[in-house]
């Protein structure tokens, strides 16, 4: 293991290299290719908050990459190393991600340079509200223009503060709740949003494992059951992905990498127990159910079937790419593989399920939440009566069939109660997410298999999504 080399491009340059690689295979005018690639605008704000008897200054960003569709959408990250290059790279990825999964948004992203662990809850509320105030004033948070969501270091709590701040500053906006997604359920959120990105990673892997031809490209076969997985980052995305893959698909989590080191256990680590240990102690060190590895990033190079980087960008780079043994990488994080590492891994035959697809579950369910807020009605509420009436018809038919068979067969009570229960909001969200992840995979896959000049899923994903951005430009007559 070594740190990234000085020859490594920045995150934004890395995204641009990958974009250019796809554009070279497309029939696009250089001018239009350039227009789509560049970031439209980045707003930098420095603001002060009175804390602990003194004034503390913070720096934040909101970047808008593309407004080919509005509102633009993208998370807000709270981390010490946030900078303009990073938010612009993340905003660009949002454009391509939304296009790929057909969420009708342009791309945006925000960030605040802060280590949230240094502040208590009250201080975090003051800081978050003040940052939100600065962005709301400039329509960089607005239901019809720019809709943030959680990202690294933020979650439901911060989104609730932001929504409340917007509502206070826009008391007559009936759609105020739609100014941000990822809110708690009782503050206008939607069932299943917290785990949506991790759930999407699981659905993406399930879809990949439905295609023997695709598995063969990675030298894999069979199902997710028993597959050895290493995950980096046991936060929102990594925890949910690992938990669902372990408890619902039978995969084995053989490695977990966190800030303070890693854990290894060839027999499998209990994800919930590791998470509880992190919550209690702040790290993985001292966890009894696995071997502690001080240089956690070394576990990226561990023998396994699937590697899930779910923390930071640039963790698989020119320095360690050649040591990566996983035949399949799914980019739960944004930009975990640099463009240089991507080339090395492709050469080695490693299959990479790219970030713009792999972690699109979050924005997909955010889209559902935004629609729910604008329609002012819970998902499923309108359909419920009609659905119940149709279900009763089926039960009546089955009862009649049972009578004609003189009771030799009849529908079980369990069937009747389960069937009549119908789909609630969570079921609708999950099925909508599953459908989205399947359809987006199919669109990437078709390009991957149909074209001799496309040998990886990332290039295929870029070709599909750039194509969708281009057609929305054309629709506007541009
Ligand atoms: N939250 C979402 O809905 C969402 C959606 C799409 C993409 N993403 C992407 O997923 C990634 C993770 O986001 P998240 O929301 O889970 O963040 P999070 O803050 O909930 O979790 C990040 C985790 O990574 C760990 N971590 C930080 N530095 C590390 C290091 N050097 N080595 C190992 N672990 C480290 C943290 O301790 C934490 O457990 C980011 O790239 C983010 O952009 C998140």
UniProtKB/TrEMBL annotation:
Binding site for NAD(+): 197, 236
Gene3D superfamilies reported in the protein's UniProt record: Leucine Dehydrogenase, chain A, domain 1 (3.40.50.10860), NAD(P)-binding Rossmann-like Domain (3.40.50.720)
GO molecular function annotation: glutamate dehydrogenase (NAD+) activity; nucleotide binding
Catalytic residue positions: 109 (proton donor)
One of the protein's GO biological processes: L-glutamate catabolic process
Site feature: Important for catalysis: 151
InterPro entries with a match to the protein in the record: Aminoacid_DH-like_N_sf, Glu/Leu/Phe/Val/Trp_DH, Glu/Leu/Phe/Val/Trp_DH_C, Glu/Leu/Phe/Val/Trp_DH_dimer, Glu_DH, NAD(P)-bd_dom_sf, NAD_bind_Glu_DH
Residues bound to substrate: 73, 97, 366
Database matches in SUPFAM superfamilies: Aminoacid dehydrogenase-like, N-terminal domain, NAD(P)-binding Rossmann-fold domains
Organism name: Thalassococcus halodurans
Record's keyword terms, sorted: NAD, Nucleotide-binding, Oxidoreductase
Pfam families per the UniProt record, alphabetical: ELFV_dehydrog (PF00208), ELFV_dehydrog_N (PF02812)
Protein name listed in UniProt: Glutamate dehydrogenase
């Amino acid at each position: 293991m070594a740190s990234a080399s000085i020859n490594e491009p920045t995150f934004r340059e890395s995204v641009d290299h990958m974009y250019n690689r796809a554009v070279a295979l497309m029939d696009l005018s250089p001018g239009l290719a350039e227009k789509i690639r560049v970031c439209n605008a980045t707003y930098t704000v420095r603001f002060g908050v009175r804390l602990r008897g003194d004034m503390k200054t913070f720096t934040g960003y909101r970047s808008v990459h593309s407004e080919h569709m509005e509102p633009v959408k993208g998370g807000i990250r709270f981390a010490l190393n946030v900078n303009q290059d990073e938010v612009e790279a993340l905003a660009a990825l949002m454009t391509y991600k939304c296009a790929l999964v057909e969420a009708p948004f342009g791309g945006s992203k925000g960030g605040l340079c802060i280590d949230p662990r240094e502040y208590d809850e009250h201080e975090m509320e003051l800081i978050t509200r003040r940052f939100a105030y600065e962005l709301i004033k400039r329509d960089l948070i607005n239901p019809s223009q720019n809709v943030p969501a959680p990202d690294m270091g933020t979650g439901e709590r911060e989104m609730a503060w932001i929504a409340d701040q917007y509502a206070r500053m826009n008391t007559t906006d009936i759609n105020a709740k739609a100014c941000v997604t990822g809110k708690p359920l009782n503050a206008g959120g939607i069932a299943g949003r917290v785990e949506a990105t991790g759930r999407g990673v699981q659905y993406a892997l399930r879809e990949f494992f439905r295609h023997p031809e695709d598995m063969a490209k990675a030298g894999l076969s069979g199902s997710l059951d028993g597959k050895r997985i290493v995950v980096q980052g046991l936060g929102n995305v990594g925890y949910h992905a690992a938990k669902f893959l372990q408890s619902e698909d039978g995969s084995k989590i053989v490695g977990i990498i966190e800030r303070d080191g890693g854990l290894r256990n060839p027999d499998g680590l209990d994800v919930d127990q590791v998470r509880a240990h992190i919550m209690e102690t702040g790290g993985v060190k001292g966890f009894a159910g696995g071997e502690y590895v001080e240089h956690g990033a070394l576990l990226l190079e561990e023998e396994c079937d699937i590697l899930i980087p779910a923390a930071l960008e640039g963790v698989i780079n020119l320095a360690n790419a050649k040591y990566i043994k996983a035949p399949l990488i799914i980019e739960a994080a944004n930009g975990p593989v640099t463009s240089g590492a991507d080339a090395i891994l492709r050469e080695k035959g490693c299959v990479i399920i790219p970030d713009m697809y792999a972690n699109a579950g979050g924005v997909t369910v955010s889209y559902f939440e935004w629609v729910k807020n604008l329609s002012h009605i819970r998902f499923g509420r309108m359909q419920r009566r009609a659905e119940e009436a149709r279900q009763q018809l089926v039960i009546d038919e089955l009862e009649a069939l049972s009578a004609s068979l003189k009771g030799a067969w009849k529908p079980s009570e369990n069937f009747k109660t389960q069937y009549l229960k119908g789909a609630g909001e969570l079921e609708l969200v999950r099925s909508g997410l599953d459908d989205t992840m399947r359809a987006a995979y199919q669109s990437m896959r078709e390009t991957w298999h149909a074209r001799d000049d496309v040998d990886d899923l990332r290039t295929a994903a870029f070709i599909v999504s750039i194509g969708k951005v281009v057609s929305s430009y054309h629709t506007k007559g541009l």
